[in-house]
């Protein structure tokens, strides 16, 4: 545990750009956070340099927690979660990723996925709009 932090921090990995530690309000055993040292309230506010360090650390955390092996169709799983904005459930205005082990259906992240029926006409219109933005470079 770090003695220099106001909130207890149980460090897992640290690089020049990133810090990872165990979540003090976990949803399951081993729930960990990965944060960039560069401040950015949302993902798009971070430099590409900071972003390039986050996923390799997430991978190391998952391996460290032992959730990367497959034990049949159910096995052990994990979620990598990152929220942007209050509407998307972000409570801390600093980018952070959660690595949340999923050992069973009752612990870890519980997700509902309200999928909509496909409207290929609307989907095609959106695709055309997005392609125009890509081609113009104005996004």
Describe the structure.
With 139 residues, the chain is of the alpha+beta class. It has one domain: HIT-like (HIT family, subunit A, 2-Layer Sandwich), CATH 3.30.428. Helices cover 25% and strands 18% of the residues. It has 2 helices and 5 strands, in the order βββαββα. The chain has a 5-stranded antiparallel β-sheet with strand order 1-2-3-5-4, with helices on one face. The radius of gyration is 18 Å and the shape is globular.
Write the layout of secondary structure elements.
Elements: E1 11-14, E2 18-22, E3 32-36, H1 48-65, E4 77-81, E5 97-102, H2 120-136
How would you concisely characterize the structure shown here?
This protein is of the alpha+beta class.
Name some characteristics of this structure.
alpha+beta; globular; 139 residues; single chain; 5 strands; 2 helices; HIT family, subunit A
Mean pLDDT across the residues is 88
Helix/strand order, N-terminal first: EEEHEEH
Task: Write out the CATH superfamily name.
Answer: HIT-like
Number of H- or I-type helical stretches: 2
Main sheet overview: 5 strands, antiparallel
Strand content: 15-25%
CATH architecture: 2-Layer Sandwich
Binned, the helix content reads: 25-40%
Nearest-angstrom radius of gyration?
Answer: 18 Å
Low-confidence stretches: none
CATH fold annotation? HIT family, subunit A
Task: Count structural domains.
Answer: 1
Total count of strands: 5
